[in-house]
Amino acid sequence: MKKWLWLGLCLISVLAQAEDNKIKVFAAASLTDVMNVLVKQYGQQTGVQVVPVYGGSGTLAKQLEQGAPGDLFISADEKWMQYLKDKQLVQVPTIKPWLGNRLVMITPQNKPLTIKAEASTDISQQAPGYWCTGDTLSVPVGIYAKQSLTNLGWWDKLKSKLVSTQDVRATLSLVERDECDVGIVYASDAQSSTKVKVAGEFAESSHVPIVYPMALLPQAASETAAFYRYLQSAEARKLLLSYGFKPLFND
Amino acid sequence: MWTLSPAELAIVLLSLKVAACCVLVLLLPAIGMAWLLARKQFWGHALVDALVHLPMVLPPVVLGYMLLVLLGRRGWIGSWLYEQFHIQLTFHWWGAVIASAVMAFPLMVRAIRQALMQVNPLLEQAAQTLGASPAKTFFTITLPLAYHGVLTGGILAFSRSLGEFGATITFAGNLEGETRTLPLAIYSLTQSPEGDAAALRLVILSVLVSVAALLVSQWLERRLLRSQR
Predict the structure, then answer these.
(1) Residue B170 within any structural domain of the chain
(2) Does the residue B1 lie in any domain?
(3) For B78-216, where are the E strands, in sequence order?
């Protein structure tokens, strides 16, 4: 008798999961803090539950490619959006540049540095320790960072000291823990932590523009469009600005 | 097509270096712990036994995090190491050795312990009645008779180290040429948009290295059996 009861419970919970209509947002890791707030506010206003899934944009794109169930994808660069577009895994007309950001160098809070992002800076002498950033092949922040470092002529000097992380948040936490001496993250990440200090900023011309595009996924639930609009509302704009992002939409 | 690029060769050599050091580092502690668990009865035996096996059941990421908290530059032990000797284990290949050694420790202890338990205690007693000290008995009678356990344990630890991912990436980080072993390199490539072909090459390479390790171990075992006869 008891056995059947358990079996029934399991079945119900499985069915219940298949039934629910939560919106799943696959969002770049750098959006973690602001998206948590946006999702919470949206839930309070509309009663619609949005579940964010965070990770490196590449990790998320590859998961979606393998059939992960998602409704909305927000990448931290255009490359990964293009990747899914090429495979016809996003609703192309809904692709929209949503946010901009800036690229900065950070240090642990108790070891502040000032680093001028100029070709004349003797970088191996100024910041001799370990450098962390996202994987320079796949994680957007790492891809931008490699472009800037190459442009400044720092790449060859730093390559052997450059630790790759799976997303920008992992870099932030390694710098917070003082394992890494310098981290390259977005301005919004630097702003989100009290345990790090900004050491310098890369010129916007030193890397391709930082753009967060978003798009609906092919199987998006019908409620997703409303959330997609909410993300481009005046209310969202205010919040995004306060978290250090640059909204690229007109509300 | 079928030749290794210098970068690939460097990754394989690094993986082999880390795995070999992992076995060397573990040899003495594992024999000691196996002997303790196989031969001694003491208060807390079950607890020590459980602690030794912990890495087998805990997620590797948890162990990597624990290592980071303990041995990181700001860690309890790590901060001391850094201040006294300027040693930083994170992002250093020794960090990768430590991460995989922790993961492989229970495998090695288990193998050696099994072998020790099969050694006939009467032989040890005979040696001691003939005047051999306990240490001499251990090294001339017990250990040679349990040699196959040490070998099996070493091979298990070597293979475990070749495949270690979670604890390594959490504790030692992913630094090219320093801690980016085969599994980490494969992970990095599978994440990148154009990395699939390169990842596949490394996957094949990884299979080849593992098969080679197994073949060598079988050959060693056969040689050992022959010499014992």
Answers:
(1) yes
(2) no
(3) 174-175
Residues of B with CB under 8 A from a CB of A: 68, 72-74, 90-91, 169, 173-178, 180, 188-193, 195
- Judge whether B89 and B189 are in contact, CB under 8 Å: no
Establish if B137 belongs to a structural domain: yes
Per-residue pLDDT tens digits for A172-219: 999 999 999 999 999 999 999 999 999 999 999 999 999 999 999 998
Distance CA B162, CA B211 (A): 12
How far CA A43 is from CA of A27, A31, A50, A55, A242, in Å, comes to 17, 17, 7, 22, 20
Give the count of beta carbons closer than 10 Å to the beta carbon of residue A15.
Answer: 9
Residues 92-111 of A with CB under 8 A from B: none
Nearest-Cα residue of chain A relative to residue B78: A179
Q: Contacts of residue B190 in chain A, CB cutoff 8 Å?
A: 62
Q: Is the complex ipTM more than 0.90?
A: no
For residue B117, tell me if it sits in a domain: yes
Number of folded domains in chain B? 1
Q: What is the pLDDT of residues B188-207, one digit of tens each?
A: 888 887 888 899 999 999 99
Range of the domain at B16: 6-227
Shortest alpha-carbon distance between residue A162 and chain B (Å): 6
The CATH number covering residue B47 comes to: 1.10.3720.10
- Determine the residue among B191, B194, B202 to mutate to test chain A binding: the one whose Cβ has the most chain A Cβ atoms within 10 Å: B191
Enumerate residues 6+ apart whose C-beta is below 8 A from B45.
B37
Q: List CB contacts of A137: < 8 A, sequence separation 6 or more.
A: A143, B188, B189, B191, B192, B195
A87 part of contact set with chain B, CB < 8 Å:
no
| Predicted TM-score of the model (pTM) | 0.84
Are the Cβ atoms of A62 and B191 closer than 8 angstroms? yes
- Flag if A135 and B174 touch (Cβ within 8 Å): yes
